[in-house]
């Protein structure tokens, strides 16, 4: 099975994801970067992929470095190096028979270059939808698990619940239908 690697053009995501773009337009770029990393870190927990996030040094000159943060590999390019050129080089280096590299960017020229190297490409909007979809799946699974946990931990058995429901209906004067499943079971 191939190892999945996702390379994210960070400023491209910030410019294309509405919530992050609002932060950017309000001169809150550090918050937009932090939120992007947080979203990708949460996504990383849901997806079995190594994630590289590449920031172009044009917004923070002189920083040029790589480090691990939230299980993400974060890279700031050199001052004279664009994120695009760094991503192209990294994708070419990481793409092998045993790895599948996907690059997240909406830059069309970058997408074609990446594709010609054998890597896959995913536009910014599609990655955001995938992140939201994964988050919703986790929330749904958590709700189902919690519902099962509540039922399983109930101190009442079905017959007791049926009797309590009948008593409630008598006290409220409501001849409302008791749970049909329980009613059928205890006739």
Chain-wise SSE layout:
Elements: E1 3-9, H1 10-16, H2 18-25, H3 29-46, E2 50-55, E3 65-69, E4 72-76, H4 83-94, E5 99-104, H5 108-116, E6 120-122, H6 124-152, H7 158-172, H8 180-185
Parallel strand pairs: 1-2, 1-5, 2-4, 5-6
Antiparallel strand pairs: 3-4
The main sheet orders its strands as 3-4-2-1-5-6
Overall residue-averaged pLDDT value? 82
Structural class: alpha/beta
Specify the oligomeric state. single chain
The major beta sheet can be summarized as:
6 strands, mixed
Residues in β-strands, percent:
15-25%
If helices are DSSP runs of H or I spanning 4 or more residues, what is the number of helices?
8
- The N- to C-terminal Cα distance equals 55 Å
Rg over CA atoms: 26 Å
Low-confidence stretches: 179-184
Count of DSSP strands: 6
Described by the principal axes of the CA atoms, the overall outline is elongated
InterPro entries: YacP-like
Protein name: NYN domain-containing protein
Organism: Candidatus Levilactobacillus faecigallinarum
Features:
8 helices; single chain; 56% helix; alpha/beta; six-stranded mixed sheet; 187 residues
What does this structure look like?
Helices cover 56% and strands 17% of the residues. With 187 residues, it is an alpha/beta fold. It has a six-stranded mixed sheet with strand order 3-4-2-1-5-6, sandwiched between helices. The chain starts with a strand and ends with a helix. It comes from Candidatus Levilactobacillus faecigallinarum. InterPro entries: YacP-like (IPR010298). This is NYN domain-containing protein.
């Amino acid at each position: 099975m191939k190892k999945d690697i996702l390379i994210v053009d960070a400023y491209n995501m910030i410019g294309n994801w509405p919530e992050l773009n609002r932060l950017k337009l309000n001169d809150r770029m550090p918050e937009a970067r932090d939120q992007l990393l947080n979203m990708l870190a949460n996504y990383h927990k849901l997806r079995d992929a190594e994630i590289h996030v590449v920031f172009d040094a044009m917004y923070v000159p002189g920083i040029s470095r790589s480090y691990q943060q939230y299980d993400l590999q974060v890279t700031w390019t050199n001052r004279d190096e664009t994120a695009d050129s760094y991503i192209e080089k990294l994708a070419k280096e990481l793409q092998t028979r045993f790895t599948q590299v996907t690059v997240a960017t909406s830059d069309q020229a970058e997408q074609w270059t990446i594709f010609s190297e054998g890597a896959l490409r995913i536009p910014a909007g599609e990655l955001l939808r995938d992140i939201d979809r994964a988050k919703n799946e986790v929330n749904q699974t958590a709700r189902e698990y919690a519902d099962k946990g509540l039922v399983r931990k109930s101190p009442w058995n079905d017959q007791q619940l049926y009797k309590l429901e009948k008593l409630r209906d008598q006290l409220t004067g409501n001849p409302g239908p008791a749970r049909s499943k329980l009613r059928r079971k205890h006739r």
